[in-house]
Design a protein that fits this description.
By secondary structure, the chain is an all-beta fold. It has one domain: Sandwich (Immunoglobulin-like), CATH 2.60.40. It is 0% helix and 64% strand. It has strands spanning 4-5, 8-12, 19-30, 33-43, 48-52, 55-56, 62-75, 78-87, 92-93. The strands form three sheets. Strands 3, 4, 7, 8 and 9 form a five-stranded antiparallel β-sheet that branches. Strands 1-6 form a two-stranded antiparallel ribbon. The protein is elongated and about 50 Å long.
Length: 99
Amino acid sequence: MTYTINTHVIGRCKVTPSAHSVEGKLYRLRWFGQEHLKSGKRSGAKKYHQVNLNTKCKKNSKYVYRATGRFYSKVGKKTFAVSYYNQTPKKETCVKGGK
């Protein structure tokens, strides 16, 4: 049986941009700091991009997870850029089906 931690980063534009990119990284917090688990990136002149950052985890393991994301788009002469992160408020247990 495979157990996974699943997260995703999404970029949406109302109109088709001339440039659009979305990238994300998934980490788990360990005693020595952040352990990088997975990275992903999508780019191209599309209204919608999604990066899935799914990774296997050991059954019943408990960690705090952090996902970071960056969004960039250019529409006409306007440029939009955002970076952000989301972190579980407490240690999450790796179980079948997850929350």
